[in-house]
Amino acid sequence: MRALFVCAIALPMLAGACKGLEEQPAPPFHVAITVESDKNVPLPGAVVTRTHKEIGKTDDKGRAVLTFKGEDGDQLDVYVKCPEGFDSPTRPITVALKRLSDPSRLAEYPVSCPPAERKVVVAMRTENGPNLPIRYLGRDIARTDQSGAATFMMNAKPGDHLDFTVDTSDKANENLRPQNPSVSLVVDNKDAYYTLDQVFQVQRTRVIVVAPHRPQPIGPTPLRY
After folding, report:
1. 198 with 129: CB under 8 angstroms?
2. Which is nearest to 184 in space by CA: 170, 163, 165?
3. How far apart are CA 148 and CA 127, in angstroms?
4. Which of 46, 66, 117, 184 has the smallest C-beta neighbourhood within 10 Å, fewest atoms?
5. 46, containing H or E segment
């Protein structure tokens, strides 16, 4: 009876010990996606998806922490959809699952979501061209002042060619040369300030004064024999 009692006590303890020896599931992997619109400008609201399902969204610091299950060395593709007004990456971001020596650190994957349009500030300077309209795509967008200067701002896509016409079609400007010239720029992939110059020559009108014809007095004509 004593032996049976010992076995009855030992078996549950042995079962518990065996259960403790069972392999515990590996902890998940944590990685961070960091999104910027420009260098050092974090972008909140970017959505991270995998297999068409949302798995994270960047916070005010442009950071989304993702959790994955898998084996050390696995590689997974995720996609980043940028907020409206920003261009999303066309290719997936490949995330590698890896145990870091410092558990408090996360593997980070930087992503760029550049603005779809850039701010273009144009300073137009015209020599001999006061009070002239500046036209873009057939409409007036600015006018030079008495000194021939005009400054205006617009939005445009990086790589766009912007052509501006200095309108001299008014009759008061008919002596300016060239007539209705165009100046252009190419939009950079950043907000930028551009200076454009146009020089006008003033064509002087030549006035020819013709002296009135005065009739010469006619005297007596001598007779010839």
Report:
1. yes
2. 163
3. 6
4. 184
5. none
Can you tell me the distance from the alpha carbon of 225 to that of 223, in angstroms, rounded to the nearest whole number? 7
The domains found in the chain, sorted by start residue, are 26-112 (2.60.40.10), 118-202 (2.60.40.2610)
| Amino acid residing at 156 | A
pLDDT digits (tens, 9 = 90+) for 75-88: 999 999 999 999 99
Alpha helices in 139-194 (DSSP H): none
Residue with tokens 């078996």: 11
**From the first residue on, what is the mean pLDDT of each consecutive set of 10 residues in the chain (225 residues)?**
51 54 79 97 98 97 96 96 97 94 89 98 97 98 98 98 98 97 97 98 76 64 56
Contact 154, 141 (CB under 8 A): yes
Chain center to CA of 68:
33
Among 183, 87, 70, smallest CA distance to 136 is for 183
Contact status, residue 133 vs residue 152, Cβ threshold 8 Å: no
Give CA torsion, residues 215, 219, 223, 224, to 10 deg: -60
Tokens 């998806």 correspond to 49
Q: Is the pTM of this model over 0.70?
A: yes
The answer to whether the beta carbons of residues 188 and 158 sit under 8 Å apart is yes
From the number of C-beta atoms within 10 Å of its C-beta (0-12, 13-18, 19+), residue 114 rates as middle
